[in-house]
Amino acid sequence: MKTLRTLTLAGSLSLLMLTPASVMSAAQDEPMFTPQQMTDWLHLVMSSDRTVYTRLIVNRLQNKEKVIKASEHFEDDKALVLPAQMFRFGAEMVGEATDDFSYSLLSEWPINKQNAPRTEVEKAGLAYIAANKGENYYATEELGGTTYFTAVYADIAVAPACVSCHNDHKDTPRTDFKLGDVMGGVVIRVPM
Amino acid sequence: MRGKNILLWALWLLLTLLLAWYLLSRLYGEAGDKTVFLPGATTDGHYQIELACNACHTGPYADRDALQEACEGCHADALKAAKDDHPKAKFSDPRNADRVALLDARYCVTCHVEHRPDITGPMAVSVPADTCFLCHEAIGDERPSHAGMAFDTCTSAGCHNFHDNRALYEDFLVKHMDDAPTLFDQQLLVGNLAQIAEQLPDYPLDAHPVQALDAAGQVYPEHAGDAEIVRQWAGSAHARSGAGCQACHADTAGGDWVDSPDHTACASCHKGEVDGFLQGRHGMRLDTARLGRELSPMDPALARLPMREDAAGRELGCQSCHGAHDYSLAESAVQSCLGCHADEHSLAYRDSAHYRLWQRERAGDAPAGSGVTCASCHMPRIERDYYWGTFVHHEVQHNQSANLQPNEKMIRPVCLQCHGLGFAIDALADEALIRANFNAPPAVHIRSIDLARQRLDADADTPAH
After folding, report:
1. Which residue out of B79, B80, B95 would a mutagenesis test of the A interface target, given it has the greatest number of A Cβ atoms within 10 Å?
2. How many domains are there within chain A?
3. Are A96 and B89 in contact (CB < 8 Å)?
4. Are A95 and A102 in contact (CB under 8 A)?
5. With an 8 Å Cβ cutoff, are A95 and B92 in contact?
6. Is the CB of B101 less than 8 angstroms away from the CB of A144?
7. Which residue range is the domain that position A129 belongs to?
């Protein structure tokens, strides 16, 4: 199963990850897509999946139907995985499968302080998307001797569950989130 | 003078050739003793297999990634099961490149270098005890209760582990902070293999369906027809669940009779247990596939723990602890252990409350699962999920490392079955009590639950958000 998953992922990535230099249009000698397009598409998949999970699974079953709760300690509490955890578990699985891209969920108001911005681009990007709602932030940065194209996308409170969980969590540094607020950002990196 | 020089050169050449022959024969000889190549004493976890160099150093030019692959080949599953708090993926993320430059936690050997007893401490950790500082320098700001605590106490004070914090994380402490010390009506898991055998993916159900067998229907060669053996088998769980003589004694390849089947025969029905055995202290030397060479079975004479002198020479396999034919779990859960182990903790077992409970169970005065044996703690039954929990096998964990060190790993699968969390944390931190085999309440107190309670109370006093 793991092999199949790895192969599927590798296959998908190999299509997506063909570098601009290797995917040339014979006629125009131009890349078929830019790193920015690539991160935009990746983000579209990530945010769509997470929104579906948040609305149709967590919010519906926990807040509307009240049949099961979502919990950070989902195994001990026999509960649903939190949307943010689902996102992180996916990021970890990608991290185990490839170095061709990576992504993380960060915030200027993180519940886990290890998820606060650390690099200059992360700091600038999170500040930018919070101040410029609806816009993304793109930059390049050098980390560990490798240059990355780094994209930062706003992470919006799409359901009441996002707001109530973050405002009420004992480790939250901010308690006044509202539906539709920028709560943090998705950072996607592609090595150049 | 010149003749003397020639003689010296010839002698030098001869000695060089002899030395080269000796080293090469050790290095490449099938049964060569490679001790001469060991650069230093090996840790307790690896010393049994230290002469299977290729198990870790997979090739002459193997790089750090190859070494890491070898580490993960044996330890990855355990780390996953432990819900590793510092998985490799966390450090592979480029945003942590600056941290990796300080401490490359993508590789096990960064913190667990082998063959260096001079710098290796508990848990085979070879970096300074205050290494947590490198990433968690600001913990005092985030958690005022931690301000001023020395960084070499993070993992030595009973509060945190680097990998496994399943029983130590804050919300778990809060959830269990009012647990009673002992829950007297609790019972441990009992075996359920016969009930779920039909669902196990590799169980040889066609050849050996789960059903009661009698001696009359058994086929065995004349020389194996010992009446006492047949009597022992007839009273065993094997006879009750469809495992006749052929189930163990027929060679899996050709069906020929094998007088003394080894662990590979047991694995056809007890795969999980045998896998654990081959990963643990008793069976790791028999895992030829993983080691890349054959080693003799483990022998108590090779052990670093104190063993009974009369146990020397007893080779460890399934039968050394389980006997053969009657397969008494009662015997293997205590008697077999004490037949070899002679450390202070083992010798004190028969003076413990755990042993008294076990006596009551054996006498029929208490229900099954109420007694506490050596195996209850060191080879506990665990819930092994199949198909993501579609059904659960109460498998006996034969890999002692799964819950041995750090001993907080034992809290959830073992201690919490019958004890409260605070009691368990304190008891496992009390080294004198461990040596005395828990014959009294803990005399050591770990503050982690107190700190969690203080924070909870402080939050309760704060106006609602």
Report:
1. B95
2. 1
3. yes
4. yes
5. yes
6. yes
7. 2-9+41-191
Q: Using CA atoms, how far apart are residues B448 and B465, in angstroms rounded to an integer?
A: 26
Distance CA A35, CA A192 (A): 8
Q: What is the ipTM of this complex?
A: 0.77
- Selected residue of A118, A167, A177 to mutate for chain B interface (largest B Cβ count, 10 A): A118
* Shortest Cα distance, chain A CAs vs residue B459, angstroms: 8
Q: What is the DSSP letter of B177?
A: T
Block residue for tokens 């027929």: B250
Q: Flag whether A16 is in a domain.
A: no
**Per-residue pLDDT in tens (0 to 9) along chain B, 465 residues:** 677 889 999 999 999 999 998 888 877 776 667 788 888 899 999 999 998 988 999 888 889 999 999 999 999 999 998 999 999 888 989 999 999 999 999 999 999 999 999 999 999 999 999 999 999 999 998 888 999 999 999 988 889 999 999 999 999 999 999 999 998 877 888 889 989 998 888 899 988 999 999 988 888 888 887 888 999 999 999 999 999 999 999 987 778 899 999 999 999 999 999 999 999 999 999 999 999 889 999 999 999 999 999 999 999 999 999 988 988 888 899 999 999 999 999 999 999 999 999 999 999 999 988 899 999 999 999 999 888 888 899 999 999 988 888 999 999 999 999 999 999 999 999 999 999 999 999 999 999 999 999 999 988 776 544
Instruction: Of A37, A75, A49, give the one whose Cα is nearest residue A158.
Output: A49
Q: How far is CA B426 from CA A166, B378, B435, B444, in A?
A: 34, 18, 14, 6
A74 vs chain B: nearest CA distance in angstroms? 12
Chain A environment of B142 (Cβ under 8 Å) = 113
| CA A149 from centroid of its chain's CA atoms | 15
Enumerate the domain spans of chain B.
48-165, 193-418
Using DSSP's 3-state secondary structure scheme, residue B307 falls into: strand
Residue B80 sits at the chain A interface (C-beta within 8 Å): no
Provide the 3-class DSSP secondary structure of residue B6. helix
Cβ atoms B352, B439 nearer than 8 A:
yes
Cβ contact (<8 Å) for B465 and A167? yes
Domain contains A130? yes
- Residue B142 forms contact with A (CB below 8 Å): yes
- Within-domain flag for A95: yes
- Residue B89 sits at the chain A interface (C-beta within 8 Å): yes
- In chain B, whose CA is at the least distance from the CA of A145? B97
Q: Which residue of A has its CA nearest to B171?
A: A73
Q: What is the pTM of this model?
A: 0.85
Residues in A closer than 8 angstroms to B98, CB to CB, are 118, 143-144
CATH of the domain at A54: 3.30.450
Residues in chain B with CB shorter than 8 Å from the CB of A189 are: 94-95
Which residues of B fall within a CB distance of 8 Å from A145? Answer: 97
Contact B446, B429 (CB under 8 A): yes
C-alpha R_g of chain A: 18
- A169 inside domain: yes
Query: Given an 8 Å threshold on Cβ–Cβ distance, is A73 in contact with B90?
Result: no
